[in-house]
Amino acid sequence: TNTNRIIDSEVIENLPIRNVQNLVNLQTGVVDGHVRGSRTGDNAYYVDGVYVRNHWNGGNITNGISRSGTQEVSVQTGGFSAEYGSANGGVVNITSKSGSGDWGGSFEYVTDIGQDVGTDKNAIYSFGYNLLNFDVGGPITDNIRMYFNVEKSSSLDYEPAYTTHAEADIFELS
Question: What local confidence, expressed as pLDDT, does residue 165 receive?
Fold first, then answer.
């Protein structure tokens, strides 16, 4: 059976996610990019009708697509037509935003809090995370509209380690 879920821009803007892959992972039947138990390389990703694939490792290259530049995401799981011959797991169609009849734009800057790395176990340390997102769009003439989006993110620690258990020295035994 074919299941097709369409997520529009209103939902995309209101969810606490950063990219399209996070949105795909929220769909029923998808776990960490695996659609219905398939390998992540078995999924087909299309951006504005163009098939996109990382030919080096077979994975998708949609993580660079900004949330604010995404108009709609369609996630199909199972039962595809022959049009999607390269997909055994799922098909993800991404539609990017286009210009509108009115000028508009936004600017976003996100950073983490904390200080440089040290040895104080009670301090809050920074991973050096920074994200800058800028978009603008509108009419150029009566028949021509434009949309421009730039997103740049960086981190000093690409593999941060997290602990999910309490430290042993928090509790005192008497």
Answer: 46
